[in-house]
Amino acid sequence: MKNLILLSILSIGSFISAQVQPPTPPVPPEPPVTPKAPEQENKVESDTTRINLGSKELLIIDKAEKKSKKQMDITEDNENSIDEAQEQEDISKKGKMHKKHKENMNPSKKSKKAADVDFLDLDLGLNFYSNPADVSDNIGDDLNLKLWSWSTTFNFLPTKFYLGSRNFGLMTSLGWRIGRYNFENAIEFTPGKELTYSIDSSGSIAKSLLSVHHLQIPLMLYVQSNKIKGLGRIGIGLGGYAGIKIHESSKLTYKSIDRVVKTKEDFGFDKYRYGLSARIEIGALKFFANMDMNNTWKNQDLRTLECGIWLDF
What we know:
It is built from four helices and 14 strands. The protein is an alpha+beta fold.
């Protein structure tokens, strides 16, 4: 019985000892609090590295003061560059405006031309004798011209050189003149001699014609108005011309038979041609006159007067 009571007491004691909790371990001390740095008026951005050494904490602070200073220097340089570029742009704009202002002040200087060159001018005229009274009666009567004694002059590359204004200048070109002398009488000229001829008394010759070609250069001082409403331009020119003979020929047409005889030979025309010239322009109407100062034939005081119209292309 004693043993049973003792065993019960031991069992109860072991049960009670199992229910007893172990003691609570002590709380570790809190780490020291790092005092906060006083706030500065101008905060500076920084990079902070924390290192724990046991109960101590090491703080490594990398201030960006130098970096900020460099950024400030770069910003200042950029601002200076921008200011310089803006200043250069303003100077360039002022220069362009000044140039444009000068062009507007003198618009004629920009478009002013020294000369104008065209392709072709054409002179169509009639030939007359300017001094028929100065020759002998026989020659004057024999060499009477028909009214339709045409002359044609091709003026290549007609050029106007302006003398300070488009209303005043010099006119010139390279001319090829074809002069025809259509006689009233049936005359047969002897080739290779100076104005040697015979009048056909048989009546077999229907037409007698002489033709002479010259290369010549005219030079004229020309004055022209501005355009007049409803009329055009009015102009007048005075000058002269000089040329050289390049070709002579005769043409005989017979009545009774279908026969035309053309002869290319020397028929006594003067080698050189020179004289005075005048031109008048009234809108679309243009007239000219040329008066030879040289003799038409060698050793004969007989000169040619040419009058007609001129066309420009």
